[in-house]
Amino acid sequence: MNPIIRLEDIQFNKKDSMILSVPNLSITQGEILGIMGPNGAGKSTLVRILSCLQAPTKGRIYYKSVELPSSRISIELRRRWAVVLQQTLIFDTTVFQNVAAGLKIRKVPRAQIKEKVEFWLDQFGISHLAKKNAHHLSGGEAQRVNLARALILEPEVLYLDEPFSALDFPTKVKLLKDFKSIIKDTDTTTIFVSHDLTEIQFMTDRLAILMNGEIEQIGLTKDVVNNPINRSAPFINEMSLHIEE
Ligand SMILES: Nc1ncnc2c1ncn2[C@@H]1O[C@H](COP(=O)(O)OP(=O)(O)OP(=O)(O)O)[C@@H](O)[C@H]1O
Questions:
Q1: Which of these, 192, 195, 160, lies nearest to 38 by C-alpha position?
Q2: Ligand 1 mean position to 16 CA, how many Å?
Q3: Alpha-carbon span 100 to 243, nearest angstrom
Q4: CA distance 26 to 39
Q5: Which DSSP letter does residue 136 get?
Q6: How many domains does the chain contain in total?
Q7: What is the CATH number of the domain that holds 71?
Q8: Which candidate, 158, 166, 194, 6, places its Cα nearest to that of 83?
């Protein structure tokens, strides 16, 4: 099967230092790929390059076998993916209007917006909050709004950069379960950056360990976690220790 996204000879340098070097990375339609690594390893840079928020210094990105231009990605193409970050970007209006925002920009008819917003509020268990001002939500509720707002756009690819890290454990567990079943049901290709091994093991099909700007190891999540190699071994062991403590 052709990958939905493929990186070839990607490098990102700043001044004379190499921030990221990825000779090859393919992501398959519908998979959830986890990215883990120490602080400063280049995870966010990789996500920014994959989602075309950052142009690489060199290299090529293919989306469904078509090479993306190095600058000026069309709006139509950008609209095929969505990015969710740790900080929730909530507008000072109701939950309903927050979730509807992207559809309004796309000039979707009102009746359809209503139907879709109601569906996604229900999916994320926040229908009862529809009329509430989104600035008055808890962190977990706000992150549900953020995710509903991304998924309502039916993105082909979803980029998540530590979206759950600010949530307490019970809130996180409930949201992870709901969220995983939604992205599997919708077959949304997902790239998921996290520092949390529990999140990664629960959510992802494959895992890439990024160290000093390079992919040290990539494979099925359970294989990477159970058999870390070279420089990823001390990192994974340290992350596992945190869980057992
Ligand atoms: N535009 C830039 N200019 C200069 N340095 C940069 C730039 N973008 C990233 N860096 C540097 O590249 C390295 C990787 O940054 P990045 O944010 O991708 O790491 P990360 O793995 O996401 O880290 P963290 O886990 O702390 O969020 C860091 O040392 C950062 O300071």
A1: 195
A2: 14
A3: 38
A4: 24
A5: G
A6: 1
A7: 3.40.50.300
A8: 158
Q: What is the pLDDT of residues 106-154, one digit of tens each?
A: 899 999 999 999 999 998 889 999 999 999 998 888 888 998 999 899 9
In whole angstroms, what is the distance from residue 111 CA to residue 1 CA? Answer: 38
Q: Decide whether any atom of ligand 1 lies within 6 Å of the 35 Cβ.
A: no
Residue type, 58: K
Determine whether the shortest distance from the Cβ of 194 to ligand 1 is under 6 A. Answer: no
pLDDT tens digits along 50-76:
988 888 999 999 999 889 887 777 777
**Of all atoms in ligand 1, which is nearest to the CA of residue 41?**
21
* Residue among 160, 177, 158 nearest 169 (CA): 177
What's the CA-to-centroid distance between 92 and ligand 1, angstroms?
30
> Tokens at residue 19, please?
């921030």
Helix (H) or strand (E) holding 98, with range, is helix 95-105
User: Looking at ligand 1, which residue's alpha carbon is closest to its atom 4?
Assistant: 14
Query: What Å distances lie between residue 225 and 72, 201, 205, 217, 221, CA to CA?
Result: 38, 8, 12, 10, 6
The answer, yes or no, to whether ipTM is higher than 0.90 is yes
Amino acid found at 70: S
Please give the angle made by the CA atoms of 119, 183 and 162, to the nearest 5 degrees. Answer: 110
Domain limits for position 173? 5-244
The CA distance from 203 to 110, in Å, is 34
